[in-house]
Amino acid sequence: MADTEKAYTRQGAALPVRGGQLCLITSSNGKRWIIPKGLIDPGHTAAETALIESWEEAGLVGTIRRDPVGNTRKIKKKSQYLSK
Predict the structure, then answer these.
(1) Residue 72's closest CA among 1, 20, 9, 23?
(2) Considering just the CA atoms, what is the radius of gyration of the chain in Å?
(3) What is the helix (H) or strand (E) element at residue 12, kind and residue range?
(4) 79: which DSSP letter?
(5) How far apart are CA 3 and CA 7, in angstroms?
(6) 52 φ, ψ to 5°?
């Protein structure tokens, strides 16, 4: 594995759509809108993770599109994880 790959944590996410409309999902406290996402467990694909997270976070069941909508990278600063 290249050094640059070690810096990233892979996650799978779902944008649930029903009847051509995006399903909006709230956080457990109901104060934020979220996208169901989670870490990709060994042996799972990003698509499988998206299905699992959609069920766990919103009770949604469905199928995955053949091609992903896209991908993104978010760089987190180490200082976010240090206790203050």
Answers:
(1) 9
(2) 15
(3) strand 11-13
(4) G
(5) 7
(6) -60, -50
Q: In the chain, how many domains are there?
A: 1
Domain at 71, CATH number: 3.90.79.10
User: For residue 19, what are the domain limits?
Assistant: 3-81
Can you tell me the distance from the alpha carbon of 14 to that of 50, in angstroms, rounded to the nearest whole number?
A: 5
Averaged over successive runs of 10 residues, the pLDDT of the chain (84 residues) comes to: 60 89 87 90 92 89 83 68 54
Are the CB atoms for 56 and 37 separated by under 8 Å?
no
* Structure tokens given for 82: 């240090």
Lookup: tokens for 64: 């995955």
SS3 16: coil
pLDDT for res 43? 94
Tokens of 75: 């760089």
